[in-house]
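Problem 3 from the worked examples.
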Amino acid sequence: MVHSLTVKRAQKIHAVLAHRQQGIVVLEDVHDPHNAAAVLRSVDAFGFQTAYFIFEHQKAYNPKRIGKQSSASANKWLTIEKFASTKACYDKLKSEGFTIYATTLKSEKPLNLYTPMPTLGPKIALVFGNEHAGISEYGQMHADYHLYIPMQGFVQSFNISVSVALVLAEITRKRREQGIEKYVLDDQQKKELQDKWMPEV
């Protein structure tokens, strides 16, 4: 029984790795750990691997230890990094060649999520702001593009976990149209994750 369960888990790991996408979800000063946990669930569900957390004005928490129920233990499988400022996070992203999309309603010239985007990556970073204040001024000013989700109702914002799910779903749809194989993790990245995950089997 133990052997069959181990084989089944190994098969699942290989299947997940085959579809893991490149790209980073960035959460800037998200103060509610339950919201963050729900976001991580979407990150994993849509096949993204990496999430960055910025704690500049909000009290930091450990993303690896938040809400098992709301995250469905997704944080266990994700690559997570924390930053003490938006500048530090952006500096790293830009030094590694990432294009930064900040989701915001404050921009004068935002891009509609459902229209063609200048680039889908593979090196894209999708930034989501604080639940109440949204993206910081620095986060908006230093992003490459501003992105918004069009809404037709009286309410002009979604819960952050819903916003992340909608954006990742649309990015994935666009990538599939162009050929998702261009956006999956490379062989070295897959090997590193396989080595990390197999001890969990």
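Problem 4, a separate protein:
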Amino acid sequence: MDRKSFLKKAKKKAGPVIRELENLYPDAECTLSYDTPLKLLIATRLSAQCTDARVNMVTPALFERYPDCEAFANADVEELENYIKSTGFYHAKARNIIDCCRELIERHGGEVPGTMEELTALSGVGRKTANLVLGDAFGQPSYVVDTHCSRISKRLGFTESDDPAKIEQDLREIVPPEESGKFCHRMVDHGRAVCRARNPLCEECTLKEWCAFYEENHGNRKRRNGAD
């Protein structure tokens, strides 16, 4: 299928999928605890290869010790590592957080910028983190492609790629900007509750009528059995 036909097919089912996800998860939101853009930026960086629940256990003491950008920029790296050790990969995370906050002070007066280009220029900040900050802290359209969003997007037939950057590009063409932030949070909720990486609950899933994965793995078999 050429790209034009693929996108046309995906856009056709995007509307009902978005509405059903809204019906299933009306209160979906970021599960990281924060009250400033900087705290969301730091928490999101800590969430790499770590659960949000674990990050939320770490950040109260962390933000009490380091309440602002200047405090992080001047942090002793070993002390900071001790605060975030349980989130994993703490050597790299600590160094990136310190470098990032120094860059924020040097380039942006200690404030978190509100553009993709400026955010991804910071140490340790990729597109997933930048999208989350832009969407949740600044209310901008954002397409956060985490493992849940990647998996479900491919199963639904919204993308044919495994590359998060390409999946984001596909979603930008399929999901309206005003729906993007909530859509991605709802994909996370659906991935945790139903569309799991292993043993997805396909028969219970109310998205199955629009799902390419269901059609391939269950629909065709049902038709064959019916014919028998």
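Solution to problem 4. The chain has two domains: 3-28+146-222, 37-137. The two ends are 31 Å apart (CA to CA).
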